[in-house]
Amino acid sequence: DAKTTQPNSMESNEEEPVHLPCNHSTISGTDYIHWYRQLPSQGPEYVIHGLTSNVNNRMASLAIAEDRKSSTLILHRATLRDAAVYYCILRDSNYGGSQGNLIFGKGTKLSVKP
Amino acid sequence: SQTIHQWPATLVQPVGSPLSLECTVEGTSNPNLYWYRQAAGRGLQLLFYSVGIGQISSEVPQNLSASRPQDRQFILSSKKLLLSDSGFYLCAWGNQGLVTGELFFGEGSRLTVL
């Protein structure tokens, strides 16, 4: 069963901010929200993760709703190199065995126009 | 620093032939190891994961098998390839003791079965 829901695709203009939404209404208290992205013909790359509070790193920001049922990945200034498939994934922090495995959905394909 | 390598990067195999993909990790010990597959135009599917030497868990029934003969070596095999085995195979590792749960992916091995 899919634990997260993302739009299939989004478009952005270069140099503009991008907000990638993710719904996870069945999230449990021990689930971390992870974001990965996959550039064409490459393996996925970790972007950011969070539990309850908003998070920032050099790549992006993660805004988590107060009820944790949704989150948004924010790219502050999109570049052409940000064109990729972005995956929102829930990962159980009590990961022993299969619960903590990263299960990828279909993700959102982000296109960036010059 | 930690590194992960997969080989071969590309291979073309006839139906019914055997397969062996290798993955090695350097710079860490006792990692969790994973094999994912991405069929053309589809998302990533978790095939196998391992939490230690000789410990393999299969996520989906299939024509493939995995082995972990050494702590940092993970091998994906098949005795007889099927057309449906074509895809992009990705090895990944994660640190068992790290609560962030970030996974690091290799460069991938693209398999075409004819």
Question: How do the strands and helices of this protein lay out in sequence?
Answer:
The complex is a heterodimer of chains A (114) and B (114).
Chain A: E1 9-13, E2 18-23, E3 31-38, E4 45-50, E5 55-56, E6 61-64, E7 70-75, E8 84-92, E9 108-113
Parallel strand pairs in A: 1-9
Antiparallel strand pairs in A: 2-7, 3-4, 3-8, 5-6, 6-7, 8-9
Chain B: E1 3-7, E2 10-13, E3 19-26, E4 32-38, E5 44-52, E6 55-58, E7 65-70, E8 73-78, E9 87-94, E10 103-105, E11 109-113
Parallel strand pairs in B: 2-11
Antiparallel strand pairs in B: 1-3, 3-8, 4-5, 4-9, 5-6, 7-8, 9-10, 9-11
Question: Which properties best describe this structure?
Answer:
heterodimer; A: 114 residues; mainly beta; 5-stranded mixed sheet; 9 strands; globular; B: 114 residues; 7-stranded mixed sheet; 4-stranded antiparallel sheet; 11 strands
Strand arrangement, major sheet of chain A? 1-9-8-3-4
Counted by DSSP, the helix tally of chain A is 0
Kindly report how far apart the N and C termini of chain A lie. Answer: 37 Å
Total number of β-strand segments of chain B? 11
Which structural class fits the helix and strand makeup of chain B? mainly beta
Order of helices and strands of chain A: EEEEEEEEE
